[in-house]
From TrEMBL:
This is DNA replication and repair protein RecF. One of its GO terms (cellular component) is cytoplasm. Belongs to the RecF family. InterPro entries: DNA-binding_RecF, DNA-binding_RecF_CS, P-loop_NTPase, RecF/RecN/SMC_N, RecF_2. The RecF protein is involved in DNA metabolism; it is required for DNA replication and normal SOS inducibility. RecF binds preferentially to single-stranded, linear DNA. It also seems to bind ATP. It is found in: Cytoplasm. It comes from Microcella putealis. SUPFAM superfamilies: P-loop containing nucleoside triphosphate hydrolases.
Length: 389
């Protein structure tokens, strides 16, 4: 899979932009603040379900405008599709594929990307929410229907939390909250499906992570993945799952037990305390928590290895072929050895898009095609192809 053409209107600092792209590596180069990252942000948006830099979409619309348009042609083998997004400052966003309307949450079905940016250091050093988002975004790219499951779970969670707040305010006893049981059943059914998908994904990521860390760091350190579940019943017998398969019946039983056991605490705090929304992806290096024990360089290598593992998993099971690999301002943070090893690790993907402020930071074999960006303009673009969207 690769993007052959990108067209932007009123996106970030671009009033208009037309950019033709080809397979292989392409370097987008320019001083900081000129708009390099904005281009790859637009390409990554459909598969990530949003920006990798900001939570909302208002910042993506150029100042003084009400909407931004992102249009791209994506090719795989002899087939091509046109994906178009309208991102609105107010109101719902809109999406089309080949001119037909689709729901925004369906877009990961059509565009697969793996994007690494400096912010991804938080995957190792940051809060669990970032690691959960990493897993769930990858799950949706692999199994698009689970976007609905995750969305439904979040809605049930909000409803349940609202009920807990109302119960606390009215001083109802736990036994009086029969309505909670209804929400509990739905929370468990959806939550177990999410947990099962995460367990399966982590099992597939695990060997690729170890290989990716060795490839980037050049060291023989042992990088390992695991999951920490808040639904685990400490009085239960037997494991919640093996390395790669969840016992869904047991997980549902433990989920219900934990909700019952924590009900008083949940009423006191007016928040749901157990479930996949509070789980964590556990990262260890040589048996120790990477978050607290990995050095800065090791943390960078670990974060890169996670994204490389994600790209390998998508490559293995995607009918659309390789994901588009995006390296946003990554090479400046790496020493020469890691730069070369990262170039080796990504050079065989169908399309690799790199942004950099300094051309010499990027190994030559990834910089044969260079496009210069300045002040929201593509200074020396490749001429747009005849089949531009």
């Amino acid at each position: 899979m690769h993007v052959t053409h990108l067209s932007l209107s009123d996106f970030r600092n671009y009033a208009r932009a037309e950019l033709a792209l080809g397979p292989g590596p392409t370097l987008l180069v320019g001083r900081n603040g000129q708009g390099k990252t904005n281009l790859v942000e637009a390409i990554g948006y459909p598969s990530l379900g949003g920006s990798h830099r900001v939570a909302g979409d208002q910042a993506l619309v150029r100042a003084g405008e009400e909407a931004a348009i992102v249009r791209m042609r994506v090719a795989h083998d002899e087939r091509a599709i046109v994906v178009e997004l309208q991102l609105n400052k107010t109101g719902a966003n809109r999406a089309q594929v080949n001119g037909s309307p689709v729901r925004m949450r369906e877009l990961p079905r059509y565009v697969h990307t793996v994007l690494f940016a400096p912010e991804d250091l938080a995957l190792v050093r940051g809060e669990p929410s970032g690691r959960r988002s990493f897993l769930d975004a990858l799950i949706v790219q692999r199994i698009p229907r689970l976007a609905g499951t995750i969305g439904d779970y979040e809605r049930v969670l909000r409803q349940r939390n609202s009920l807990l707040k109302s119960a606390r305010a009215s001083r109802l006893s736990p036994d009086a909250l029969t309505t909670l049981d209804v929400w509990d059943d739905r929370l468990v059914a959806l939550g177990v499906e999410i947990i099962a998908a995460r367990v399966s994904l982590v099992a597939e990521l695990r060997p690729h992570l170890a290989a990716g860390y060795a490839a980037v760091a050049g060291d023989e350190h042992l990088a390992e993945l695991g999951l920490r579940h808040t639904i685990v019943d400490p009085t239960g017998e037997g494991p919640l799952h093996t390395d790669d398969v969840l016992d869904e019946q047991r997980a549902a039983e433990q989920f219900r037990f934990s909700l019952s056991e924590r009900r008083r605490a949940e009423l006191d705090r007016a928040v749901t305390l157990v479930g996949p929304h509070r789980d964590d992806l556990v990262l260890t290096l040589n048996g120790l928590p990477a978050r607290s024990h990995a050095s800065h360089g090791e943390s960078w290598s670990y974060a890169l290895a996670l994204k490389l593992a994600a790209a390998r998993v998508l490559r293995a099971d995607a009918v659309a072929g390789d994901p588009i690999v995006i390296l946003d301002d990554v090479f400046a943070e790496l020493d020469e050895g890691r730069r070369e090893r990262l170039a080796d690790a990504v050079s065989d993907f169908e399309q690799v898009l790199i942004t950099a402020a300094v051309e010499n930071d990027v190994p030559d074999r990834l910089a044969a095609t260079r496009i210069h960006i300045a002040a929201g303009a593509i200074v020396d673009p490749t001429p747009p192809s005849e089949d531009a969207p």
